[in-house]
Amino acid sequence: MVSNFIVQALSNQPLTIYGDGSQTRSFCYVADEVEGIYRLFMRGDNNPTNIGNPNEFTVRQLAELVIELTRTGATIVERELPVDDPKVRQPDIRRAREMLGWEPAVSLREGVTRTIEYFRSVLAR
To answer: 30: domain range?
Structure first.
């Protein structure tokens, strides 16, 4: 979702959200996710352990942040919300904090900024 929004914005295409964008998601920067999975692999056990970011943002907030940080004239368009689209996605990472000493370190704003830089370089080729 993040990369789709970024590519749409950098291409001056409208960012597509479903419904009014009030559904929430938790976004975890890839380096944080990899570190959590690595720690789980090295020190974990066979019990389920969530690795993710417990901070929620609406899909609309994400789209608006991408537009702000890309400094493009992209707009937001709404499409019909699929009936099975979850309203909330938020992992409980208590076990990862306690057992692995892990939690995400990169904020959404910083992660989106880094991802924009990457896609700018890829699209410029």
So the answer is: 2-123
